[in-house]
From TrEMBL:
This is Transmembrane protein. Coiled coil: none annotated. Residues 1-34 are annotated as: Disordered. GO terms for cellular component: membrane. InterPro entries: RLP23-like (IPR046956). Keywords: Glycoprotein, Membrane, Receptor, Signal, Transmembrane, Transmembrane helix. It is found in: Membrane. It comes from Parasponia andersonii (Sponia andersonii).
Length: 106
């Protein structure tokens, strides 16, 4: 079965309205083209948008913690519980290692 309506690259059949002169060159010239496109993307406006996005995101998170006491308490309680779990887990490991060392020495 063939689909006779397919055309354009990578096929050899050109689509109606496509000119062969519009095709982009393949090879080292195309790499240079991509580099120029990257340089055009990273402009002063790009960095301004990144900065504005960071500031807005930062104040959305910190502002919500600043103005909502219940959220602030829940947030810091969450991190306190994580800290406790890490401490208990690491202490369990270190005590287990100490017990194993005592039994092997005697």
């Amino acid at each position: 079965m063939e689909n006779l309506q397919l055309c354009g690259p990578p096929l050899t059949k050109n689509c109606p309205g496509d000119d062969e002169t519009d095709e982009k060159p393949r090879g080292p010239e195309n790499d240079e083209n991509q580099e120029n496109q990257y340089k055009e993307l990273v402009t002063f406006g790009f960095y301004v948008c990144i900065g504005v996005g960071f500031i807005v995101g930062f104040w959305v998170v910190c502002g919500s913690l600043l103005f909502h006491a219940s959220w602030r308490y829940a947030y810091f309680r969450f991190w306190n519980n994580i800290n406790d779990r890490i401490y208990v887990t690491t202490q369990g490991w270190s005590r287990q290692d100490c017990r194993e060392n005592l039994h092997t020495k005697w």
